[in-house]
Design a protein that fits this description.
The complex is a heterodimer.
Chain A: H1 2-26, H2 37-42, H3 47-81, H4 85-113, H5 121-151
Chain B: H1 7-24, E1 30-32, E2 37-39, H2 54-75, H3 78-82, H4 87-104, H5 106-109
Antiparallel strand pairs in B: 1-2
Helix pairs in contact in B: 1-2, 1-4
The chains are: A mainly alpha, B mainly alpha.
């Protein structure tokens, strides 16, 4: 059961990663014809991703919070027994980074959906970038830590 | 969002309350996964396994966000909230990361 939940958590995170990366790279793009693959990847309507990003973020966060006790009892204990304190510390930081993204979501949504597209461009850009970085950090560290359990 | 609730202020209140609770290590409650029990106090009993404070810190973040949002939305005119310096939203991650480091540095330094 827990394996299925971890997989669902991972799939939600990957969906979120795709949406927020499109949007996060898109906010830094200057309007111009999209010629390269990267340009086409970034040439999206960012506002169209805002609802998907906050919904996927909350779902991924909630799923992660639900399975977290199992991680604490199983993975974290094994890693601690192996003396890998830095590894645990990195995961502990992940939990705070995930909260940073969560706390910024209401402001993020406001600036995407309640603010005119021509206003607050820099704020929208920075908020989106932070949410994107939080997502990348959480997914990469979570995935690595999950694998570490199998290596010790 | 409305006259009674500002999403922007909620974000600020959430981040600051979470940071405070994390630095002070005062979760609203603790969860003991080994015995599947929530507690408002630190049970400080090694036989019942580790205590998880993270949910309790988030709870204080949510409470702080709602309280700050409602109070400021009622007390401060909307046009002033609209003029809030946008750099606030960029400083919030720094504040939370600092709180995070205060709480978690022992994992790296000891």
């Amino acid at each position: 059961m827990i394996a299925a939940l971890v997989i669902i958590h991972g799939l939600l995170a990957i969906g979120l990663l795709g949406a927020v990366t499109h949007q996060g790279l898109g906010v830094w793009r200057k309007p111009a014809p999209a010629r390269s693959f990267l340009d086409r990847f970034r040439a999206v309507n960012g506002a169209g991703y805002a609802n998907a990003v906050w919904v996927l973020y909350v779902l991924t966060f909630a799923m992660g919070a639900y399975i977290y006790p199992t991680f604490v009892l199983d993975v974290k204990a094994s890693v601690a027994d192996a003396g890998m304190r830095t590894t645990i510390g990195v995961f502990q930081i992940k939990e705070h980074v995930a909260v940073i993204g969560l706390s910024l979501l209401p402001a993020y949504w406001h600036f995407w959906k309640r603010s005119p597209a021509s206003e607050n461009v820099v704020t929208r850009r920075m908020l989106t970038t932070v949410v994107m970085l939080c997502t990348w950090w959480s997914l990469v560290i979570g995935h690595v830590l999950n694998n570490v359990r199998g290596l010790i | 969002m409305s006259r009674l609730f500002s999403l922007r202020i909620f974000s600020i209140g959430f981040a600051l309350a979470y940071s405070w609770a994390t630095i002070q290590n005062v979760p609203a409650f603790r969860y003991y996964p080994l015995i599947n029990k929530f507690s408002l106090t630190d049970l400080a009993d090694k036989t019942i396994g580790p205590a998880m404070s993270w949910y309790g810190w988030i709870a204080y973040g949510l409470i702080g966000g709602v309280v700050a949002s409602v109070i400021i939305s009622l007390a401060v005119p909307r046009r002033l909230i609209d003029k809030l310096w946008p750099g606030v939203y960029w400083l919030l991650p720094v504040v939370v990361m600092w709180a995070c480091w205060v709480r978690e540095q022992d994992w790296f330094l000891k």
